[in-house]
User: What shape does this take?
Amino acid sequence: MSYARKANKGYYGYASYQDNDGNWHQKSAGCFKLKREALAAADELETKLGQVNLDLKDVTLAEYFQHWFKLYKANKAQSASARNQYRIMLKMINEYWKDTRLRDIKRSDYQAFINWYGADHAYKSVSKLNGAIRTAVSYAIDDDVITKDFTHNVTVTYNRDKKVKVQYLTNDELATLKTAVLAKLNRYNTSRYMILTAIYTGMRKSEVQALTWKDVDFLHSTIRVNKSWDEKKKAFKSTKTESSNRTIKVNRQLLNHLADLKANNSVMVFQNVLGTIPTSNALNKCLRSIMVSCGIEKQGFHFHSLRHVHVAYLLGQGVDIYAISKRLGHSNITVTLNTYSYLIDEYKAKNDTLIIDKLAQL
Assistant: This one.
């Protein structure tokens, strides 16, 4: 039964409703100046809540996850890879849970699911799936489909053997690669300039592709990242995350080389003689050709690997991990630590030896 309660600035309307287990709950419809307005809003909310429970009381986890994705995530997941990730998640949920109703899942059931999925997947994959389901479940609670969060306090388990080691070059290999890139710079073929930019900045491919001359500040030696490039649609899109919007300090050597491209008279920094921005295939083909020419053999090495190379070099030079995280545009330092833990562990071992040597000098 809906009702109104007097408040300092008017009246609060409250709706009463039953959950799927028959338990009664109350939910506020907001504060209103007049009592009749509060009652009307409470009645409307009560009707809505009753309909939600009628429509969704027997919804399965897979059905609700799909419902949540279409309503809240489909428009935000702009890239094909992001949408594909959600499709894979839904496939896994369907495979394991089948017709299990959302309201019938207990925490122990969900932990068993995470253990099942984690047995054959790396930490990153399990963490992403768990994060997506947790968010969907929180929305289900707000929709009054369920009352308890069965994902709370669940332990993320994963297969440590599935962890992919970060690909990187030694300092000598990096110097050799940079020299080879510089040897045949040609403003009509911008792929080499993009490779050089990735080496010096650690930017993502789509961020490099999206650069315009307005983003390059020659006076203050910075590059601003505020968008990325959709190479299929040949259009700008938002950055991967909000934290990806950043300003990167760069060295004068890179800027001097980029200045060569101004002669192409294009708005986009890396628009080539064909009037297009080099694609992933073009960049990887160019990179592989350069590496073969200078005798660097790295299986599976591609343009994105240059981001790892950038991190490896900075870590080797003693740059603080927090500063590296900000430079990469990660949302927090934990993302950086998880992504580059293999490298960080390697440098930790070297530093441990250095620490012992220094302590021996006391």
Summary: The first strand starts at residue 3 and ends at 7. The CA atoms of residues 349 and 355 lie 10 Å apart.
